[in-house]
Amino acid sequence: MRCSPDQSNANVIDLFTGKPLLEAQRERFIRISPELDGLEMLYANDTDKQKLFSLKILCWALRENGEVVGLVPWLDKIIACPDIDDPLNGKFEGYYDPGLEDIFFDAPIHKVVELESAAEYYESSAETPDAIVQEIPDTIGTHAVLSERGSHSMTLSEVVSWRLYFDGHISGMLVDPDKVASTPVLPGDDCLFTAEDCPIFRYYFQHQIANKIKAQDPEAIAAISALVDDGG
Fold it and tell me: What is the rounded CA–CA span in Å between residue 43 and residue 103?
């Protein structure tokens, strides 16, 4: 059986979200499904108020409260599209289907049905919050930027997969080259470790930015260096 939120937390406020703890518990992710049709998130920020930007959606997630949302790697974590926020006042502007040139604001019904059916079929319990519920491959070319504090150098590491834990948090999984026993490295491999647990992990970037960094694009290098030197 899936655990129900503790009713005793109804009047307790989560210091990080400012929401009642019970509400925060009900917003935890309980099931994820990869986005395989190229759908994107649209957002705007203060760099150009007349322009919309897009990011490929990594996956769709079902919350404990029944809501289904798209997820994207955003700065140093994975986040629900409607919840994006950054120093430039990034704001969610909807989901986008580039094939149909269609903008919409609710998760596609086929993803809702898939996630609800899977959650019902794989209804589970766990003794610890860090029990692994799912692990899905990265399908959008996400890279992690690794850099020592105060260092002017950086390393790009491909994200192999994303791991959903019972408490609802999701971590990107990177390869430890010293532990690779066979290739290709697949989700669940023993040589994988969580990016967020790595002390030199800084940010996630999708493949377009990662490729510019690899190609030594001056503007991309300058922007990423500023972010890394800034520490956020």
Answer: 12
CB atoms under 10 Å from CB of 110, counted, come to 11
| Phi/psi of residue 200, nearest 5 degrees | -105, 10
Would you give the end-to-end CA distance of the chain in angstroms? 40
CA nearest to 26, candidates 9, 7, 6, 5: 5
Instruction: Report the distance separating Cα 197 and Cα 40, nearest Å.
Output: 28
Q: Give φ, ψ of 177 to 5 degrees.
A: -60, -25
Give every CB contact of residue 121 below 8 A, 6+ residues apart in sequence: none
* Helix ranges restricted to H, the chain: 21-26, 109-121, 207-214, 218-230
3-state helix, strand, coil in the chain (%, to 5): 20, 35, 45
Distance (Å, whole) CA 193 – CA 22: 30
Residue 163 pairs with which residues in a beta bridge?
135, 171
- State pLDDT tens for residues 15-34: 555 665 566 778 999 999 99
The answer to whether 60 and 107 have CB atoms below 8 angstroms apart is yes
pTM for the whole thing? 0.83
Let me know how long the chain is. 232
Chain segment 120-152, per-residue pLDDT in tens: 999 878 889 999 999 999 999 999 989 887 666
